[in-house]
């Protein structure tokens, strides 16, 4: 900043130091002001308001009372909340490795340069990401229909009886299928761009040493994109914990398989909009936010430590 | 703009003077002043004076009523807003009430949801406006639904006395007699499903509205409400009759696992794989618009009975127009809902296809003789009107029925997809409803 000052200003410096200092600090605010304002409005204010809300309890009978941390105690004992958390954790443990595995394979295949029609392949894998989650869920929901949907058509055409994808036992896997379909392309793109920046001299050196394709992948490519892998994993963890659109849409088709407390986010939504329990809903949201932060941070620490 | 707001201010002041104590402008709560009646002279004066009435409703026939009303009272401007259908509208209304901003003067509220608003005094008691004198003109079911304690919290707009809609073509094809009892209904279901494994007597995946209606008909009275004291008990004989019979339908897979109002559902109604619908009398318009292909196939019969020859019925759906407590222009608002739900507006709405709650119109020859081309020229209103007269009036909904219904599939729904018995599912629905009520400050007894 100082280097950009015109010489005239430099000459004045000794005579009016206080006003100059204040002008400089205002200029700084001018630059970060828009960001700080937006940040405060869309991030800090809602967060502060949620925390404020979580300290009260509003009842149909008796109105609003200050309850301190009672809502948090209730959340810690809330079986519905923990069951929902367990459900998304299971989802996370199964769906995320599958999705990231497929994305990695596709990215490596693209990067290998041996794929025919590479650009077409890349865009078609990425395309589902451009479909809004709500539309994707509706579309898949229709295909899952075992009476008039695609599954129903297959049943009718082949005379078979496929298991109902929207039954309570299978619906989580069906949601996993939708989410995988949606986000494989997105993760593939992260991995692929990380692979593209690896210097080619490394490959040449490996070739001279007599390393095959698989050796190159294991020894060069994977370690080089570890950062991207960690980032994609963290995004996926956050995404899994925030699972909402897909179950909320499918709930209309399978009301008995997907309960109103199916995922933590859907639970907070139901609490707030069906039960008028805004305060408790805010509490659950904050607890869930904290858990997500802790898990994501732990994964990041672990992922980066290995890399170092 | 300033002129307008000044006029608005003056108008509001005048209204406050007029309805002072009726509840609008923060009058004292003691009985003498808060029950001060508003004469019809006051209503006429307000109509002459004019003003704006904002109405949140999704009922389609109100559009014509709005036009007629404005023609009759040129100084009154009715603003009809569709703020969403049922739950969406309640969410918007609840938000407006919480924010104390943007609350409409009139809101459409279904009977099952009205209790919650009445209890929290979010809607105005209409007794001081003379609503108590209208009791005799309404059928007992809807009228009882708008009462809570001593107050009357809305005027019944329409009603849904139940009937059995059945696909005559399917029944004729498989030579099945139209059931008159629920036992015969199960039998008909068996016969139909055996003859055609793709066909079901009806579809059901668990619907709180249908269950409460059938309990109502069976004589069960699970909900007791006395102010903030609430009783929830699903163990009476009526409830047992219902679970016993419906369990057979579920166990033998006689009901199609198709969600109501879905594409599959409409298709099923159209192609005969869903052969009957026990539902409210407001259904014909939906048949005509949603199941066009099956015109002429369907007929209407009285609802099957739990005891042979009993002749009991129940309400399914139906809504009222109420005045939110924070709304303005109470006089005008009341004048409007009286016109729409008790006065000339009722005839307009019947013409538009609505099913009224007023006995005079239900009994009128023109209404009863209406032939429905969709039902092969059947005079279906006769059956509906008879059903309306047979609805027991002593049914009560919970003061938080909207929430209770929202968790119906979490609890009772299990019976449809697992080995949980229906009775067990209803038991957990009861528990969850008790728990929520207690959390919300009610005194709840099981």
A few lines on this structure:
The complex is a heterodimer of chains A (308) and B (446). Chain A has 308 residues and is mainly alpha-helical. Chain A contains 14 helices and two strands, in the order H-H-E-E-H-H-H-H-H-H-H-H-H-H-H-H.
Your description of this structure?
The complex is a heterodimer of chains A (308) and B (446). In chain A, a hairpin with a 3-residue loop joins β1 (56-59) and β2 (63-66). The radius of gyration of chain A is 26 Å and the shape is globular. In chain A, α6 (133-144) crosses α8 (171-196) and α13 packs antiparallel against α14 (278-307). By secondary structure, chain A is mostly helical. Chain A has helices at 7-12, 17-53, 70-77, 79-111, 118-130, 133-144, 150-158, 171-196, 200-208, 213-224, 226-241, 245-250, 264-273, 278-307, and strands spanning 56-59, 63-66. In chain B, 46% of the residues lie in helices and 13% in strands. Chain B is built from 22 helices and 15 strands. Chain B has helices at residues 2-19, 31-34, 40-49, 62-72, 87-99, 111-119, 140-146, 168-173, 182-195, 208-218, 237-251, 263-271, 283-290, 330-341, 345-351, 359-363, 365-368, 380-389, 401-406, 408-411, 414-417, 422-439, and strands at residues 51-56, 76-81, 106-110, 147-148, 151-152, 155-156, 162-167, 202-203, 223-226, 229-232, 255-256, 276-280, 298-302, 319-322, 443-445. Chain B has a five-stranded mixed β-sheet, sandwiched between helices. In chain B, strands 12-7-13 form a three-stranded antiparallel β-sheet. In chain B, α3 (40-49) crosses α14 and α9 (182-195) packs parallel to α11 (237-251). The longest helix of chain B has 18 residues, at 2-19. Chain B is globular. Mean pLDDT of chain B is 88; it is low at 1-35. The A-B interface holds A 59-62, 145, 147-148, 167-168, 252-257, 259-261, 270, 273-277 and B 87, 91, 94, 116, 119-120, 205-206, 228, 256, 258-259, 262-264, 267-268, 399-400, 402-403, 406-407, 409-410, 413-414, 416-418, 436, 439-442.
């Amino acid at each position: 900043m100082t280097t950009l000052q015109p010489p005239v200003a430099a000459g004045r410096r000794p005579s009016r130091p206080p006003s100059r200092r204040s002008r400089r600090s205002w200029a700084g605010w001018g630059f970060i002001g828009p960001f700080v304002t937006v940040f405060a409005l869309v991030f800090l204010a809602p967060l502060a308001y949620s925390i404020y809300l979580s300290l009260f309890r509003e009842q149909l009978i008796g109105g609003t009372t200050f309850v301190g941390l009672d809502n948090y105690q209730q959340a810690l004992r809330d079986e519905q909340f923990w069951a929902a958390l367990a459900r998304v954790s299971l989802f996370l443990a199964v769906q995320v490795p599958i999705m990231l595995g497929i994305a990695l394979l596709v990215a490596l295949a693209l990067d290998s340069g041996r794929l025919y029609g590479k650009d077409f392949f890349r865009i078609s894998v990425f395309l589902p990401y451009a479909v809004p989650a709500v539309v994707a869920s509706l579309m898949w929901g229709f295909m899952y229909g075992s009476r008039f949907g695609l599954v129903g058509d297959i049943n009718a055409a082949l005379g078979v009886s496929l298991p109902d994808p929207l039954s309570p036992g299978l619906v989580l896997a069906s949601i996993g299928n939708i989410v995988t379909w949606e986000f494989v392309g997105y993760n593939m793109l992260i991995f692929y761009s990380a692979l593209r920046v690896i210097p080619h001299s490394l490959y040449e050196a490996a070739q001279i040493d007599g390393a095959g394709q698989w050796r190159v992948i294991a020894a060069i490519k994977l370690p080089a994109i570890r950062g991207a892998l960690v980032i994609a994993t963290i995004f996926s963890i956050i995404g899994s914990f925030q699972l909402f659109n897909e179950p909320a849409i499918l709930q209309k088709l399978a009301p008995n398989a997907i309960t109103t407390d199916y995922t933590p986010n859907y639970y907070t939504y139901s609490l707030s909009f069906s039960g008028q329990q805004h305060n408790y809903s805010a509490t659950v949201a904050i607890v869930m936010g904290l858990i997500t932060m802790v898990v994501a941070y732990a994964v990041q620490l672990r992922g980066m430590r290995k890399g170092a | 703009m300033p002129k307008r707001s000044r006029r608005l201010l003056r108008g509001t002041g005048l209204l406050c003077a007029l309805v002072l104590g009726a509840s609008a402008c923060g009058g004292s709560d003691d009985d003498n002043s808060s029950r001060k009646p508003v004469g019809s002279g006051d209503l006429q004066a307000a109509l002459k004076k004019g003003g704006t009435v904002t109405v949140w409703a999704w009922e389609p026939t109100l559009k014509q009523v709005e036009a007629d009303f404005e023609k009759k009272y040129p100084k009154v401007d009715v603003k009809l807003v569709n703020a969403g259908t049922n739950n969406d509208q309640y969410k918007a209304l609840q938000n407006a009430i919480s924010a104390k901003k943007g609350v409409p003067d009139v809101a459409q509220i279904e009977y099952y949801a009205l209790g919650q608003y009445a209890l929290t005094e979010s809607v105005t008691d209409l007794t001081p406006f003379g609503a108590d004198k209208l009791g005799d003109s309404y059928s007992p079911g809807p009228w009882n639904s708008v009462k809570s304690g001593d107050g009357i919290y809305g005027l019944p707009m329409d009603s849904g006395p139940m009937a059995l809609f059945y696909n005559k073509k399917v029944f004729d094809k498989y030579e099945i007699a139209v059931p008159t009892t629920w036992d015969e209904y199960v039998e008909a279901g068996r016969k139909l499903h055996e003859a055609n494994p793709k066909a079901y007597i009806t579809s059901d995946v668990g619907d709180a509205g249908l269950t409460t209606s059938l309990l109502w008909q069976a004589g069960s009275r699970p909900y007791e409400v006395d102010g903030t004291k609430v009783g929830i008990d699903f163990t009476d004989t009526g409830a047992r009759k219902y679970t016993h019979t419906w369990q057979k339908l579920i166990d033998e897979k006689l009901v199609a696992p198709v969600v109501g109002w879905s594409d599959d559902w409409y298709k099923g109604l159209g192609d005969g794989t869903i052969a009957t619908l026990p539902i409210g009398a407001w259904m014909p318009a939906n048949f005509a618009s949603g199941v066009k292909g099956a015109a002429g196939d369907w007929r209407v019969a009285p609802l099957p009975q739990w005891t042979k020859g009993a002749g009991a019925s129940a309400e399914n759906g139906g809504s009222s127009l109420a005045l939110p407590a924070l709304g303005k222009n109470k006089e005008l608002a009341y004048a409007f809902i009286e016109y729409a739900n008790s006065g000339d507006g009722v005839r307009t709405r019947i013409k538009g296809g609505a099913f009224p709650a007023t006995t005079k119109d239900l009994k009128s020859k023109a209404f009863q003789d209406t032939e429905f081309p969709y039902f092969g020229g059947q005079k279906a209103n006769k059956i509906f009107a008879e059903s309306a007269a047979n609805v027991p009036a002593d049914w009560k909904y919970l003061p938080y029925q909207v929430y209770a219904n929202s968790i119906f599939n979490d609890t009772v729904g299990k019976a449809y997809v697992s080995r949980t018995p229906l009775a067990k599912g209803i038991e957990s629905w009861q528990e969850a409803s008790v728990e929520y009520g207690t959390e919300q400050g009610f005194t709840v007894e099981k």
